[in-house]
Specification:
Helix content is 39%, strand content 21%. It is rod-shaped and about 110 Å long. Strand 2 and strand 3 form a beta hairpin. The protein is built from two helices and three strands; from the N terminus they run ααβββ. It has 151 residues and is of the alpha+beta class. It has a three-stranded antiparallel sheet, with helices on one face.
């Protein structure tokens, strides 16, 4: 077998200039432009992180409010039917277990779908509304109906 020889190609002067360039370093203007570009990109990234953090906090508040409203609604539906008070009164689960800043209100309204009965008579159906708010802003409102099991 014969050993092949590799020829070295020497670049001409135009090719050499293209790879080596004629400048000795970066100019001050190029450095300022690069720093300004990095600053604009950093501001955009930090702004989006701040917005994402705010959205995450709001989402967490709403999830907490929804969980509180659902558990309160189930608690009210499992309490004995109130046919004495008008409007019916239902208590909160445990006021000490409600996170600080959240407020829960329960409204119960008797429904009297039968127009032949007097309005004071209880037909055994109540509309229950549970509202969860935080710092005066309503976060979640749930509505459901409760029936008197004796009727």
């Amino acid at each position: 077998m014969r050993a092949s020889k590799i020829k070295m190609i020497k670049p001409n002067s135009q090719v050499r200039k293209a790879f080596q360039g004629s400048s000795r370093g970066f100019a001050l203007v190029e450095i300022v432009i690069a720093i300004a570009l990095l600053g604009v990109i950093a501001v955009a990234i930090l702004g989006s992180l701040s917005y994402a953090s705010t959205v995450l906090i709001i989402s967490d508040e709403r999830a907490t409010a929804e969980s509180l409203a659902c558990s309160q609604m189930e608690y009210v539906k499992n309490q004995p039917y109130d046919s004495i008070n008008d409007p019916p009164e239902y208590s909160l689960i445990d006021p000490d277990s409600i996170p600080v800043g959240y407020n829960i209100t329960i409204e119960a309204v008797r429904l009297n779908p039968d127009l032949n009965n007097p309005p004071d008579e209880d037909d055994g159906i109540q509309k229950i509304t549970v509202t969860v708010s935080r710092d005066g802003e309503v976060l979640v409102t749930l509505e459901d109906y409760k029936r008197n099991p004796e009727i």
